[in-house]
Amino acid sequence: MREGAAADEAVAEASRRTASRRELGRHEHFQAISPEVGHLDEKAFQRLMEEDPDEALALLADLTGATDPKLRELARRLAGQIMVDVGRRGRARQRGIGRITSQPFRPDGGDLDLDASMEAIAEARATAGAPDPERLRIRGWRKPGTAVCLLVDRSGSMGGRPLATSAVAAAAVALRAPADYSVLAFGPDVVVAKAQDVPKPADRVVTDVLALRGFGTTDLVGALRVAGGQLQRSPAGRRIAVLLSDCRATAPGDVLGAAKALEELCIVAPASDADEARALAASTGARLALVDGPSTIPAALAAVLGDDRSQPS
């Protein structure tokens, strides 16, 4: 896992993998949006957004990796605004009341839950040692609301629509739970683009996700475990991992076990490649939504996150 400065370096490293104008020319509308070096025609882009939003978002995602530095910077500034605007369509209102619950031990989290911690305390007394903090529980106040950890699959080749879909998902999650969310990007390793308890502007999260071009294998188990650790930092009443992936793991590990260890799992998968996602959802009870492109992400998130669900008991 890479977090903090290491994650920033991963973003910087990925940013150095750029696309030439010739490579970007595979997009049908590239010349209309960028008729010359260093130029991005926002009016032409807005027209394309009205005609074909998924194609417009896919092109914009690829422009953020342009070799042309001026075009790249213009695209990143525009992407930070556009992706957040698209993600805003799925914003939800938090609801529910707080309650006292048994939680993993934190020094300042609340009173020790003696019933739940008795075995660890008894073993420590028998050996005249200190109890293992990882086996202790506390009784603490759990706030209402929802904590979300978004896991973005960046393995293999990632650009265009998949990259734009990931960026819109990051924006939508940032707007749904602005004070309590994290974003992970995973391939052969896991990069924490935004930690659960560290503030970060939504537009910067979006541009960092756009910088993380895909490569390598898919360590799905590692990503699910890091997601569980991020969510454990939150005191929210509902803690959800949202997996944006085809769920095809290519690194060893117990995917089913790692998925079942999460309190709540939702899966958002591409409609064109969803067999493994359907199987994982069926095996774990996870809610599943399929998407055709970045513009369908807000509705998919609203569906899997269940805005009309009450807080779990």
Short synopsis of the structure:
This protein has 313 residues and is an alpha/beta fold.
List key phrases describing it.
313 residues; 8-stranded mixed β-sheet; 44% helix; 13 helices; disordered C terminus; 3 domains; single chain; alpha/beta; elongated; Rossmann fold
Structure description:
By secondary structure, the protein is α/β, with parallel strands linked by helices. The protein folds into three domains: 18-88, no CATH class; 99-142, no CATH class; 145-305, von Willebrand factor, type A domain (Rossmann fold, 3-Layer(aba) Sandwich). It is 44% helix and 18% strand. The chain is built from 13 helices and eight strands. Strands 1, 2, 3, 4, 5, 6, 7 and 8 form an eight-stranded mixed β-sheet that branches. The radius of gyration is 21 Å and the shape is elongated. It starts with a helix and ends in an 8-residue tail after the last helix. 45% of the residues are buried. Mean pLDDT is 84; it is low at 92-97 and 308-313.
What's the order of the H and E elements? HHHHHHEEHEHEEHHEHEHEH
First and last CA, distance: 32 Å
- Helix amount, in percent? 40-55%
Cα-atom Rg, whole angstroms?
21 Å
- Quaternary organisation: single chain
Round the mean pLDDT to the nearest integer and report it.
Answer: 84
The main β sheet shows up as: 8 strands, mixed
The CATH topology of the largest domain turns out to be: Rossmann fold
Structural class: alpha/beta
Name of the CATH class of the largest domain: Alpha Beta
**Level-2 CATH architecture of the largest domain:** 3-Layer(aba) Sandwich
Q: Give the number of domains.
A: 3
Judging from the principal axes of the Cα atoms, what is the shape? elongated
The fraction of residues in strands falls at 15-25%
Please report the number of helical segments: 13
> How many beta-strand segments?
8
The residue ranges in which pLDDT falls below 50 over 5 or more consecutive positions are 92-97, 308-313
Write out the CATH superfamily name of the largest domain: von Willebrand factor, type A domain
